[in-house]
Amino acid sequence: MSNKEKTKWQGRTGGGNLGQRLLIVLLRVVPIRLIYCVSAATVPFYIIFAYSRYRAIYRYFREQWRLSPCGAFCCAYRNHVIFSQIVVDRFAVFAGKKDIFDTEIDGFDIFDELNRDSKGFVMVSSHIGNYEITGYVLKPDKKRINSLVFASETALVAQNRFAIMGDNNINIVPVADDMSHIFTVSHALQDGQIVSAVADRINGSDKHIKCRLLQGEALFPAGIFTLAATFEVEVVAVFTLKVSPTKYRTLIRRLEIDSPADGTALSKSRRASLLVEAYAVEMEKILAQYPEQWFNFYDFWL
């Protein structure tokens, strides 16, 4: 399957600017649990009219978790319900209701240690759970987070992201066709800052690293891992999972790689590959606990 075929789903929130504005207005006056019920009722229609996305998740449960057809259908359906709640949660934050969510952070000591160190570091996440919530709860007091994002979202979502994350010492860095974002994040690491990126989608790039994940192989973006290898900075994987209607759990894990037994230095490409492998291991651990919170709605595996 070509890279172009594997990136048909661009991660753009549906509803358009008008529908999204209406949702924000409703969330200011209607209890969020009631909005959850309404969003859950739309799932059958979503499955019908966005069948290719449903099929990708169904195949994920059939092929990666070896579930029966019935079991895969039930899990895929619940996956869509949870995803609808996570989208509602995002807009609840936009509506000024950030305080209704409680987030427990497991591994904050790792983040705090790196935050206070003079060197910069890299944070990588994935389309597991709700990574955007992480940007609302992690507020580094020593460094600035430079978050790489693809400009595929609606204007409303982009504006709210800029406003909220800007208040949390987060600089949004749009991925540009002229590659100027590479210079921005490179300078950030040189200045001892943090670079953050979602690292489980290649977005049509030819620069990728093949790695095993669960029962198959998939392509991971080489860029962010090569950047970390170039500057020899630490990398942490961050996952934020929904554990109840108004509670999230953020897990921060350091990506550890072994040095060669003969004492030779790792090449940049080898270091990047080992970081991808370590990242995939952490993803597997999280998916084993929260298999229904995988939200890459396209055929991810080769």
Structure description:
The structure is a single chain. The protein has 302 residues and is of the alpha/beta class. It has eleven helices and nine strands. It has helices spanning 16-29, 32-41, 43-49, 51-64, 69-94, 108-116, 131-137, 155-167, 180-190, 223-231, 268-289; strands at residues 102-106, 121-125, 145-149, 170-174, 194-198, 208-213, 216-221, 234-244, 247-254. A seven-stranded mixed beta sheet has the order 1-9-8-2-5-3-4, sandwiched between helices. The longest helix has 26 residues, at 69-94. The radius of gyration is 19 Å and the shape is globular. The chain starts with 15 loop residues before the first helix and ends in a 13-residue tail after the last helix.
Which value, in Å, is the CA radius of gyration?
19 Å
Helical segment tally?
A: 11
List segments where confidence is low: pLDDT < 50 over at least 5 consecutive residues: 1-9
Q: What does the overall shape look like?
A: globular
Helix share of residues? 40-55%
Strand count, sense and barrel status of the largest sheet are: 7 strands, mixed
- Structural category: alpha/beta
* Topology pattern, helix = H, strand = E: HHHHHEHEHEHEHEEEHEEH
Integer average pLDDT: 88
Q: Give the N-terminus to C-terminus distance in angstroms.
A: 7 Å
Quantity of strands, as a count: 9
Strand arrangement across the biggest beta sheet = 1-9-8-2-5-3-4
Content of β-strand = 15-25%
